[in-house]
């Protein structure tokens, strides 16, 4: 089901979990999520073992998109960072990501190299340059239902009023969804909703420990937000659980004390689709 169709079916904000590979995408889809977010930050953490500082390349993201969409049917929102260059780079990014299976591509107005939206020290390109990138993305897409999510990081750099002004320009340029990053209070969230919710779907970014107050999907829906993104929760959950597992293994020299907290052999095989693959193989051999 398309992203816009999913948004039409709920009054709450659509909860979109962040994933970073085909395995976590399968887990999220099996848990009932029909829209997923390929987080650039989580991809940096897990593929490169690095912070979210613009180190992941366009081709690395494209490879990951293809691996994910080969294994799940859920609509995939892809973090395209800055588009990896100027408007011409954005055109290529859109074509490559769309061909790999992205249902929506997020572009932001930070300078390159960018950094996590909830870190200090960000800088922005001119609003006019970002407008050009949005127009380039719109021109490059092959299908009108491939959505463009325009993100502005202006609140932390130029102030709240500038963020609203930039969002207006990005909407006029052709953005399908607006993402005003890191509002610092419920009041700012309310003002964003009052200004834009009747005209365009709004995305709220829920970063645990970040600058924006955490809220549930019902509360965000009442504020006018249509999507609630939880980009790094999977990586954070993995970090805590993996550390506990490794600590136990180091201490005991065996996995036995930790086994009750681990999936068993059959659970893992079910999660990765082994029974279906074996059934397919048998059918093709017949």
UniProtKB/TrEMBL annotation:
Gene3D superfamilies: Phosphoenolpyruvate-binding domains
Enzyme Commission number, as recorded: 4.1.3.30
InterPro entries for this protein: ICL/PEPM (IPR039556), Isocitrate_lyase_ph_CS (IPR018523), Pyrv/PenolPyrv_kinase-like_dom (IPR015813), Pyrv_kinase-like_dom_sf (IPR040442)
Record key words, sorted: Lyase, Metal-binding
Entry keyword Nucleotide-binding: no
Job of this protein: Involved in the catabolism of short chain fatty acids (SCFA) via the 2-methylcitrate cycle I (propionate degradation route). Catalyzes the thermodynamically favored C-C bond cleavage of (2R,3S)-2-methylisocitrate to yield pyruvate and succinate via an alpha-carboxy-carbanion intermediate.
Organism: Pseudomonas matsuisoli
Subunit relationships: Homotetramer; dimer of dimers.
Pfam families with a match to the protein in the record: PEP_mutase
Family stated for the protein in its record: Belongs to the isocitrate lyase/PEP mutase superfamily. Methylisocitrate lyase family.
UniProt-recorded name of the protein: 2-methylisocitrate lyase
MF annotations from Gene Ontology: metal ion binding; methylisocitrate lyase activity
Highest taxon of source: Bacteria
Catalysed reactions listed for this entry: (2S,3R)-3-hydroxybutane-1,2,3-tricarboxylate = pyruvate + succinate
């Amino acid at each position: 089901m398309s992203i816009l169709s999913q948004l039409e079916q709920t009054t709450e904000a659509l909860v979109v979990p962040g994933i970073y590979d085909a395995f976590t995408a399968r887990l999220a889809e099996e848990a009932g999520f029909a829209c997923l977010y390929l987080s650039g930050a989580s991809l940096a953490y897990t593929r490169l073992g690095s912070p979210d500082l613009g180190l992941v390349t366009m081709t690395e993201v494209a490879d990951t998109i293809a691996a994910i969409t080969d294994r799940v049917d859920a609509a995939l929102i892809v973090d395209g960072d800055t588009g990896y260059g100027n408007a011409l780079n954005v055109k290529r990014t859109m074509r490559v990501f769309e061909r790999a299976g992205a249902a929506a591509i997020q572009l932001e107005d930070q300078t390159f190299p960018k950094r996590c939206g909830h870190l200090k020290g960000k800088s922005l390109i001119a609003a006019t340059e970002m407008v050009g990138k949005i127009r380039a993305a719109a021109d490059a897409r092959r299908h009108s239902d491939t959505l463009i999510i325009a993100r502005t990081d202006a609140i932390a750099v130029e102030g709240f009023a500038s963020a609203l002004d930039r969002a207006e320009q990005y909407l006029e340029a052709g953005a399908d969804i607006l993402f005003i990053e890191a509002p610092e209070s419920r009041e700012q969230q309310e003002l964003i909703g009052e200004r834009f919710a009747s005209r365009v779907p709004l995305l709220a970014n829920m970063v645990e420990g970040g600058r924006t107050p955490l809220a549930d999907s019902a509360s965000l829906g009442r504020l006018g937000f249509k999507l609630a993104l939880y980009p790094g929760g999977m990586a954070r959950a993995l970090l805590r659980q993996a550390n506990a597992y490794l600590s136990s293994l180091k201490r005991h020299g065996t996995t036995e004390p930790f086994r009750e907290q681990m999936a068993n052999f059959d659970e893992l095989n079910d999660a990765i689709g082994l029974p279906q693959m074996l059934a397919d193989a048998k059918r093709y051999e017949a």
